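Sequence, please.
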């Protein structure tokens, strides 16, 4: 018997997952985590617990935590370790801050969405006891210099061992996704480490030497929007400084805390964040370019890398349009552009959401296009929508993500022209001059580049079965839209996720619904509806549940209301309504003014009705046609309302 509750109910999470954990008492079995991991991340449903030794598979993105209405899933906490290091007089605590935290942290303290709070964030970290505060945007600039140099090599040398297109490598969730599902793609993934992957070893070697600090006493902390970074820093390759210094057992980056963890810590200490006076980063690794700033946005890594690659290839500064490359900006889940570099036309693509990656790769399989560079981010909108970010997206959806994106672009645009390309960052130039020599030097390769591993064995014996979206979703056309175009284009089916992370999509009527029940048409009258007399939660099934998922009362408190409600859109009787945020199900003439559970207003409720599959006739009970028919697996378009 499995140790996990059925994946039909919620996403399984393995105890000891370095990125996310579940607090069992808080789980109301709403299924939000299941939906996002299956439909947007495309991990749940793409392995079988029966073939993985009952071990849950995870890419650590934390999107399940972002959509959990009760906080039952959260990032695996590390603040306590950081606090202990701060108290230890033998330790030197160095915090490096990722691009996206400064654009979202203010939300936790009631500041307007999109507030750029870099100075206050640095001040907060100093107040909490950090010895040094450095900017991971510096690491982002370093990543760009190495990654753009690698791209130039791949474009100009055409080495079969380093094929095109080059895929970005800075998202550890995407990297693990590729290692498990697409190991044949690994030679395409840039070997450049992520910004924190470069920041860590550079602090423990270059920075430590310049500042006269014993590397063994350094406790490196990354402040990130990302839960997957908690996994990344624990990968076996992330010990480059230790190998360089000949000190065993030192990890390049010691701890990762998320935006939410930092905000909770500040609140615990009763720090009035909005009133903090701005503070600046410490020098040596605190300067960053505009290119480093936009790293947090989907498309930002691509735009940043092109500014530098253009300069490296042509030996002239990139033209103005590469400083606002609008075709790769925006919230479509897939965008592309063609950029003239010298006499070459370089095709590039930008994706977010790993389900979109499957569709993209399927399309490349059937209708290939010659791309040189592909950026992949797992989270909606890129790292600004990371699994450790403030949870306002549940309520505000893409509008909030857009505020964050605009905030980072505005910061880049406000910088002096000479400060907007990574290879012009004077602290980066000094680092190469006194330590790494030049991009892709032997030392740079050792410290700043990495290797990837085929991890398909994690999926068990049937790994290959889960590779292609089209094989698993026959009849769904995802080939339309993008191929052959040189400007931004939203490819069909490749947008932000439904079901939570992009609230405005989730609230729209056409979003595929979760299946509450499905029956043969002749058995529709056997669908039974039960209501909890304590909290009003409605349950559909042949029996009442053993326990109410909301108030936890036993089965006896349920009464049957089958004849009182209608499952037809315009039928007689009360209607059933489901909240699209927490999945609370209730009955009434109208949608309730406010959700009993998550307190969202009536616009979040949708009527639950019966939908008929026009192919196999199965009847599905849901707020909207499901993603696919549970019997014949046709897509949502084959359903019509009864
Ligand atoms: S409350 Fe919902 S989203 Fe949270 S863990 Fe439980 S089933 Fe998943
Ligand atoms: S962290 Fe991501 S991959 Fe892991 S269970 Fe949650 S949504 Fe799925
Ligand atoms: S997109 Fe960014 S925040 Fe999300 S998993 Fe990848 S690196 Fe982390």
């Amino acid at each position: 018997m499995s140790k996990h509750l059925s994946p039909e109910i919620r996403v399984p999470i393995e105890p000891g997952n370095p990125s996310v954990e579940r607090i069992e008492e808080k789980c109301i079995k709403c299924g939000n985590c299941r939906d996002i991991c299956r439909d947007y991340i495309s991990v749940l449903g793409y392995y079988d617990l029966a073939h993985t030794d009952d071990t849950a598979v995870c890419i650590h993105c934390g999107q399940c935590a972002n959509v959990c209405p009760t906080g039952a899933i959260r990032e695996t906490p590390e603040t306590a370790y950081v606090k202990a290091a701060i108290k230890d007089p033998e330790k030197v605590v160095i915090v490096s801050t990722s691009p996206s935290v400064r654009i979202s942290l203010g939300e936790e303290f009631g500041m307007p969405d999109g507030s750029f709070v870099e100075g206050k964030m640095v001040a907060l970290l100093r107040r909490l006891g950090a010895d040094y505060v450095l900017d991971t945007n510096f690491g982002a600039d370093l990543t760009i210099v190495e990654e753009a140099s690698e791209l130039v090599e791949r474009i100009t040398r055409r080495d079969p061992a380093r094929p095109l297109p080059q895929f970005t490598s800075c998202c550890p969730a995407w990297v693990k996704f590729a290692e498990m599902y697409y190991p044949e793609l690994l030679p395409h993934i840039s070997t450049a480490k992520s910004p924190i992957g470069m920041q860590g070893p550079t602090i423990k070697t270059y920075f430590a030497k310049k500042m006269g600090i014993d590397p063994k006493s350094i406790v490196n902390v990354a402040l990130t929007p990302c839960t997957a970074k908690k996994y990344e820093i624990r990968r076996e390759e992330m010990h480059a400084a230790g190998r360089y210094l000949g000190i065993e057992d030192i990890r390049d980056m010691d701890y990762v805390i998320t935006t939410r963890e930092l905000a909770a810590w500040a609140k615990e200490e009763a720090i009035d964040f909005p009133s903090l006076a701005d503070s600046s980063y410490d020098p040596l690794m605190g300067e960053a370019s505009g290119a480093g700033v936009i790293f947090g946005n989907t498309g930002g890594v691509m735009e940043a890398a092109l500014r530098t690659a253009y300069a490296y290839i042509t030996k002239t500064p990139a033209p103005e349009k590469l400083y606002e490359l609008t075709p790769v900006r925006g919230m479509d889940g897939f965008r592309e552009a063609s950029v003239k570099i010298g006499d070459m036309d370089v095709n590039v693509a930008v994706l977010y959401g790993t389900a979109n990656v499957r569709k993209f790769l399927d399309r490349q399989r059937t209708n290939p296009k010659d791309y040189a560079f592909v950026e992949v981010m797992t989270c909606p909108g890129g790292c600004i929508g990371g699994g450790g970010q403030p949870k306002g997206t549940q309520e505000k959806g893409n509008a909030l993500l857009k505020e964050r994106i605009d905030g980072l672009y505005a910061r880049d645009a406000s910088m002096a022209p000479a400060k907007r390309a990574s290879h012009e960052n004077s602290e980066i130039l000094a680092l190469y001059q006194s330590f790494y020599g030049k991009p892709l030097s032997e030392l740079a390769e050792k410290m700043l580049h990495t290797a990837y591993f085929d991890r398909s064995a994690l999926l068990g014996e049937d790994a290959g079965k889960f590779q292609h979206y089209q094989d698993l979703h026959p009849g769904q056309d995802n080939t339309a839209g993008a191929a052959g175009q040189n400007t931004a284009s939203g490819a069909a089916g490749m947008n932000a996720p439904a079901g939570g992370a992009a609230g405005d999509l989730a609230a729209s009527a056409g979003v595929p619904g979760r299946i509450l029940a499905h029956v043969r048409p002749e058995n529709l009258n056997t669908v039974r509806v039960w209501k909890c007399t304590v909290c009003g939660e409605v349950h559909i099934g042949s029996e009442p549940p053993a326990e109410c998922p909301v108030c936890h009362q036993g089965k006896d408190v349920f009464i049957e209301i089958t004849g009182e409600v209608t499952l037809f859109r315009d039928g007689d009787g009360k209607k059933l309504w489901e909240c699209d945020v927490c999945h609370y199900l209730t009955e009434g003439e109208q949608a309730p003014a406010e959700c009993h559970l998550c307190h969202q207003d009536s616009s979040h409720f949708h009527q639950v009705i019966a939908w008929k599959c026009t192919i196999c006739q199965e009847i599905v009970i849901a707020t909207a046609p499901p993603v696919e028919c549970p019997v014949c697996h046709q897509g949502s378009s084959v359903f019509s309302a009864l």
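Residues 193 and 256 are 16 Å apart (CA to CA).
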